[in-house]
Amino acid sequence: MPETGFPVEDKALFVRRLNDALVECGAERYDYLRETPMEYVREGDREYVACGHRRACVTMDSLPAMMADVYRQLSL
Fold it and tell me: Which of 30, 40, 51, 53 could form a disulfide with 15 if both were Cys (CB 3.0 to 4.6 A apart)?
């Protein structure tokens, strides 16, 4: 990815915290994320959030855009 000189968001930490929040606040609806947590994955210059066999492409996303893509593409 191009070097911009801007601080880089910690996307892996964001995904871990989002996963934890869904488990903690989801009234047992997202308890399966304890066993199969979402994880941030980089493959070359592509970025994904993976959960089991499903993936959401989050390449070049801001943190709010990542939430939207996880919601739309992973159908949690």
Answer: 40
DSSP 14-48: HHHHHHHHHHHHSTTTTTHHHHS--EEEEETTEEE
Supply the pTM of this predicted model. 0.87
Q: Which tokens hold the place of 35?
A: 């066993």
Residue 65 to residues 10, 21, 47, 53, 62, Cα–Cα distance (Å): 14, 17, 13, 21, 5
Q: Which residues of the chain have pLDDT under 70?
A: 1-3
Burial 8-33 (b: 16+ CB within 10 A, else e): eeebeebbeebbeebbeeeeeebeeb
